[in-house]
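Treating backbone geometry as a discrete language has practical consequences that deserve illustration. The amino acid sequence and the backbone structure tokens for this protein are reproduced below.
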Amino acid sequence: MARPKKKIRELKAIRVNVRMTVNEYLILSQNASVLGITIPDYIRKRVTGKALPRKRILLEDRQLFIELSRIGNNINQLTKKVHLGMKHPPMLINQLAELKNVLDMLKSNIVKSDCQAD
């Protein structure tokens, strides 16, 4: 059984050539690669106003983010025990709150640095 034919408006029959500087091409290439899509797809989505995929996080940052999330989960477990009144020295509550604030700040810095890369 043959594949159904596309309508004329759905065919990618028109080719557009654009001249750009090396710097413009490098910016275009970087933007597309950060999002994990090809340059033509990036241009099509930008021109038509379609939503671009969410920003892809670098592998190193992703691993850091995962580790920070694990630490955060441990902190949440300890905090829950503290709130239930299980074996907590008086300073533990303050230390846990301070540590959670530091982790939240680190996570937000990772996201901000990725947003500023554009």
Notes: DSSP finds four helices and no strands in the chain. The chain has a mean pLDDT of 80. Residues 90-116 form the longest helix (27 residues).
